[in-house]
Amino acid sequence: EAAKARFTVRNPTSLKFHEEAVKSLPGGNTRSLLHTAPFPVFIKSGKGYQVTSEDGHTYTDFVGELTAGLFGHSQPLIQDALVGTIRDVGLNLGGTTKLEAQHASLICSRFNLDLIRFTNSGTEANLHAIQGAKRFTRKRKVVVFTGGYHGGCFSFPEDKPAVNCVDQDDWIIAEYNDVEDARRKIEESGDIAAVLVEGMQGHGPCIVGTYEFLHQIQESARKVGALFVLDEVMTSRLSGGGLQQLEGLKPDLTTMGKYLGGGITFGCFGGREEIMRVYDPRDGNALGHSGTFNNNTLGMAAGYTGLSQVYTPEVARDFNAMGDRLRKKLQEIGQGTKMTITGRGTIIGIHFLKDGRKELKSFRDRQDEVELRELWWFEMMEDGFWITKRGMLALILGTPWDELERLVGCVSGFLKRHEA
Ligand code: PLP
Fold this sequence. Notes:
Elements: H1 2-10, H2 12-21, E1 43-47, E2 50-53, E3 58-61, H3 76-89, H4 98-111, E4 115-119, H5 122-137, E5 141-145, E6 148-149, E7 155-156, E8 171-174, H6 179-188, E9 192-198, E10 200-201, E11 207-208, H7 211-224, E12 227-231, H8 242-247, E13 253-257, E14 267-271, H9 273-276, H10 297-310, H11 313-334, E15 339-344, E16 347-352, H12 370-382, E17 385-386, E18 392-394, H13 401-417
Parallel strand pairs: 3-17, 5-8, 5-9, 9-12, 12-13
Antiparallel strand pairs: 1-2, 2-3, 4-14, 6-7, 10-11, 13-14, 15-16, 16-18
Helix pairs in contact: 3-10, 4-10, 6-7, 11-13
The chain binds pyridoxal-5'-phosphate.
Residues 66, 121-123, 126, 149-151, 198, 202, 231, 233-234, 257, 267 line the site of pyridoxal-5'-phosphate.
């Protein structure tokens, strides 16, 4: 309560804006995840790896737009690409452009895909991948995993999602990181079109899929003629070729999004040529795939610049090695406390758990110390760190190591202060 009171005193302008916002947005919010009680801090601007609030506080940004903000808020090459595109090319042109072929070609070679299609978001990429898999296999059912998140209307805490491209009865939910359950549900259910899985569950936050689990899925899917669809919307940043490169996986289809649009709304899905051909409009029976902004010029140009000139495979390797170093430091200070650190590379999950267990294989293993986590979030804000309330860090390129060490120091201070 004291932390909440301090928060209110520190952010009077945000409170004022929030009171206006609730008049036209439910709860004053258009992205549920970003809601924070008692009200959200309103961000005014971002520069590099920092954001500044309407109340004039500057924070080191660890939200990193849930991994989409990899390039930060003012990467010069991306800014030039955007301004140049606005000035010389124009916005959506209502026609095919060479920008999309250029970006597609680069993504295909980096992620070892034959053909891809663009969408507006990762959610759409997953919906289309499933639809494509159903068409290609002529089967109906889709296996997903508890704790999975594949988009706004499309998550699997315990239950089945809102109606979308799969009938309610055709979702089969298996336990994440349970090799035997995955094998059984994929191999014994019958009529499986696709198995859709994240190599690391973002919602966990950051529950890492084991090598055995992910390879079992690949093997079982192959065995029954179902498509193995790897959701790399978050994990594609973990190396030059994504998590599949790190784990030696060969999915039939891969879905991606986030930073690959250079900070502009983006998604894509793709994989083996014979599967993606179901979308080839030269074939009269092709599956339709549309979306007004699928080839928007800004995303195509900024994404291509980002991937070709900024986030090269070498940069990806070094950046994720830095993330691994940070995670280890956090793990060290968490020993013997209720704080548990999960994640890979530049995506890190911070948990406060009643039993302080240090390994999480499923979101079901998580007994949250809710009050401690809330308090942590308030105190990190006071120390100048912008972090999602659920405790996921998505690092931004160019964040100085000193800032990461400062975070470790502040987290350590928090743990001592509250005898966590
Ligand atoms: N899949 C995963 C693994 C995600 O983390 C997300 C978003 O966080 C999505 C899909 C949905 O992407 P978008 O928010 O672009 O629709």
